[in-house]
Each structure stands twice: as structure tokens, then as C-alpha cells.
Specification:
By secondary structure, the chain is an alpha/beta fold. It has nine helices and 13 strands. Strand 9, helix 8 and strand 10 form a beta-alpha-beta unit. It starts with 6 loop residues before the first strand and ends in a 17-residue tail after the last strand.
Length: 252
């Protein structure tokens, strides 16, 4: 089956200050429903975050409209394909944060660490002075992770700040390489570390999904599959739905 005949799945986010999220919600919901888009878009004063499925042209249109409405310049967008919708309906939500850390305001846009391109990730994390931190939750790490990465054993992203505070000795004096599924949590995590005084902080641009797409895991530094927050539950290294994980629902 060609990509043109499959369901497109687009993940996107941007840390951009939004003055009036209430103004955006009905506009995004109307456009999405007209285009028969499914999935979730989260809006907050710190930016937007979405995972949606549908016909690629319709998804592209919705994302472009969101970018236009917010004037976002730095937007991380990833696309892959599957044979069924991994989402059941469209939801647009207003929250305090687009990814909840619950420690107050962090200026992610200006504080975030340095991007490491997927093609450079393997060489970077193999340096002796680099410590690798998986910013995802423990149940995600159990599905797959990078060789040598630290698992903070968190159950929610809100627990990561406390783990950082309790493990300063582990991180001090090191280059800190952080990663997550699509880039949003590790980007916010690097901003947290910069705010706490760490200077050599880096993160995998586009997250695991972009890494697998760009490199195909040619170095075999990624072990397992990648947990995702939709009905697929996990994707393989070629970004196809991983066998045995799909959450069975009525896909109509």
C-alpha cells in the first residue's frame, strides 16, 4: 500500500507565546472538523502541541493554519503513515502547559538547550563526557530505549524536576543529552536544566521518531520499539505500527 492511500499521522509542536488561546480554540476545531481530521491539539500560553490523523493534505492545511494564527516560526513537524486511524475523533484542549511539568513558568523558547541532529546523535552520545537521559516515563522506556541511557523511573513528566534535583551529582560537569518521543519533553527538560544552572545541555531534534526516520537505527543504538500515545501504542524502527501493541477499537 502506497503512502498516498494510507492514513497520515502528523505530530507537531512549538513553544511560542500565545496571548489568547480561547480565541484559537473554535477556529482550530472548525477547520479540523471540516477537514475530517482526528486527534488532539493542545493549546496553552506557552505554545501548541498536536497529534492528528487523516488525509495528508487536510493535516497539512490544519497545521499551516495553526502556524498562521500563532505566528510560530520554530515548529517541529513529523509525519508517518498507517492503515487505520490511530485516533477516534478530534479534540482541541486548552491547558496550562502543552506538556505538563508543573513547576511554574519556564521560558522554553529562549532557554532551551542545543539541538543535536539525528544524523549526529550516535557520535555525540558515544563521547566519554556525555550522560544520556531518557525524559520519558518508565512504562515508555520499558518498550524501547537508547543503549546507555539513564531511566529516571518516572511515572509522569511532572516527576522529572525532582529527579534532576536529586541527581545533580550525576549531571554536574557533564554534557547532558536528553531525548523523548517527538522532541517536546526533552526540549522543555533542557530549558529546566538551563534554568537550574546547567550549561552543557543538548537534546535530540525531533526525538526518537525523527531519529528512526532519518537513520533507520543503522548503528543499532536504539533497542526495542517506540511507545506512542495513540491506538498504535508503539511503532517499530521503520515507524510502522509495532506488532502486538495496537489498541483494538472500532476504526470508522
Amino acid at each position: 500500500m502506497s503512502d498516498n492511500s494510507k492514513i497520515a499521522v502528523v505530530s507537531f509542536y512549538s513553544f511560542i507565546k500565545i496571548e489568547d488561546v480561547n480565541f484559537l480554540l473554535p477556529k482550530i476545531l472548525l477547520i479540523g472538523k471540516k477537514r475530517k481530521v482526528r486527534g488532539t491539539v493542545i493549546l496553552a500560553s506557552e505554545g501548541f502541541n498536536g497529534s492528528i490523523s487523516g488525509i495528508k493534505e487536510d493535516l497539512d492545511f490544519l497545521v499551516k493554519e495553526i502556524i498562521k494564527l500563532t505566528s510560530a516560526l520554530d515548529v517541529n513537524i513529523k509525519i508517518n503513515y498507517c492503515e487505520l486511524h490511530p485516533f477516534q475523533k478530534l479534540k482541541v484542549k486548552i491547558k496550562k502547559e502543552i506538556v505538563a511539568m508543573a513547576i511554574g513558568d519556564i521560558d522554553v523558547e529562549s532557554l532551551k538547550g542545543e539541538y543535536i541532529e539525528p544524523k549526529d546523535w550516535d557520535n555525540f552520545i558515544n563521547q566519554d563526557d556525555v550522560v544520556i537521559v531518557d525524559t520519558r516515563n518508565d512504562y515508555e522506556v520499558s518498550v524501547g530505549t537508547f543503549v546507555g541511557a539513564i531511566n529516571p523511573m518516572t511515572q509522569t513528566f511532572k516527576q522529572l524536576p525532582n529527579w534532576v534535583e536529586c541527581n545533580r551529582d550525576l549531571l554536574t560537569g557533564k554534557k547532558i543529552a536528553m531525548y523523548c518521543t517527538g522532541g517536546i519533553r526533552c526540549e522543555k527538560s533542557t530549558a529546566l536544566l538551563k534554568q537550574l544552572g546547567f550549561s552543557s545541555v543538548y537534546h535530540l531534534k525531533g526525538g526518537i521518531l525523527q531519529y528512526l526516520e532519518d537513520t533507520g537505527n543503522s548503528s543499532n543504538l536504539w533497542h526495542g520499539e517506540c511507545f506512542v500515545f495513540d491506538d498504535r501504542r508503539a511503532v517499530a524502527k521503520d515507524l510502522s505500527p509495532a506488532a502486538g501493541h495496537w489498541l483494538e477499537r472500532d476504526n470508522i
